Amino acid sequence: MSDLPEASDKPCPQCGRSLPTSAFHRNRRRADGLAFYCKTCAAARSEASRRKRGIEPQRKAAVPVTDGLKWCPDREQIKPVEDFPRTTNASGRHSYCKPCHNARGRETAQRFYGGTREYHLRRRYGVGEEEFQDLLAEQGGVCAICGGEDPQHLDHDHRTGWVRGILCFNCNGGLGQFKDSPESLARAITYLRGTTWQRVLIHPGVFQMCSPTRGRPPSPRS
């Protein structure tokens, strides 16, 4: 009989054993869909890394946690699973409840990026606050569309991800509602020009409200 591992086995470079695929965590980013190290070795490496960085090990719940509940190590409380953010790991929920998860996210953003705004700009648009301010200065400090003061929304092409300019809330939302379609925006302009009621001089000092497309005054209000 051959001593070769079965096709379903996977070697772990840490412990050198060939183990069933069930002994490895899932990792969709890898070609085989499995983590590099087996679960036991991955846990040991994570614990060693936490000790090296001076991070205290997570406190375990003093009593068994039943179905529908989950332990939050930061609060040291057992809470309903609905209080934990969803994720793609095996349990389907993050390790910390929503308030603790958010607090940890803010702390990480502050530690690595100097704040949540810098983190948001870098992660989503690939620029930082300094680049944002430079672009805003090039626009004269106003919205690139309406000219409103103090715009705060970085507009980008949703197909390419390229930054286009800085807009106010209304202009940024307006482009989104029109799905960045020049054709739809052009039709909207044509519609406004063709249906907006205008004052038309019919006699010296006498004006009438008319529609450019209909040529008649609006119906009187009741």
Describe, in plain words, how this protein is organized in 3D:
With 222 residues, this protein is of the alpha+beta class. Among the domains are: 44 residues, no CATH class; 46 residues, no CATH class; 59 residues, 3-Layer(aba) Sandwich (His-Me finger endonuclease fold). Helix 2 crosses helix 3. The N terminus is likely disordered.
List the helices and strands and how they pair.
Blueprint: E1 9-11, E2 18-20, E3 24-26, E4 34-38, H1 39-52, E5 69-72, E6 77-80, H2 98-113, H3 116-125, H4 129-138, E7 153-156, E8 163-167, H5 169-177, H6 182-195, E9 198-203, E10 206-210
Antiparallel strand pairs: 1-2, 3-4, 5-6, 7-8, 9-10
Helix pairs in contact: 2-3
What's the quick description here?
It comes from Micromonospora terminaliae. 33% of the residues lie in helices and 19% in strands. It is of the alpha+beta class and 222 residues long.
Summarize this structure as a short list of keywords or feature phrases.
alpha+beta, two-stranded antiparallel sheet, 10 strands, elongated, Recombinase
Mean of residue pLDDT values: 85
What Rg, in angstroms, do the CA atoms define?
30 Å
Global shape: elongated
Percentage of residues in helical conformation: 25-40%
**Strand order, biggest sheet?**
1-2
Q: Structural class given helices, strands, pairing?
A: alpha+beta
Low-confidence stretches: 1-6
Order of helices and strands: EEEEHEEHHHEEHHEE
CATH architecture of the domain at 122-180: 3-Layer(aba) Sandwich
The total count of strands amounts to 10
The CATH H-level superfamily of the domain at 122-180 is His-Me finger endonucleases
**Proportion of residues in β-strands:** 15-25%
- End-to-end separation in angstroms reads 97 Å
Oligomer: single chain
How is the CATH topology of the domain at 122-180 named? His-Me finger endonuclease fold
CATH class of the domain at 122-180: Alpha Beta
User: What is the count of DSSP helices, taking H or I runs of 4+ residues?
Assistant: 6
Biggest sheet statistics: 2 strands, antiparallel
Pfam families: Endonuclease_7
Organism: Micromonospora terminaliae
Protein name: Recombinase
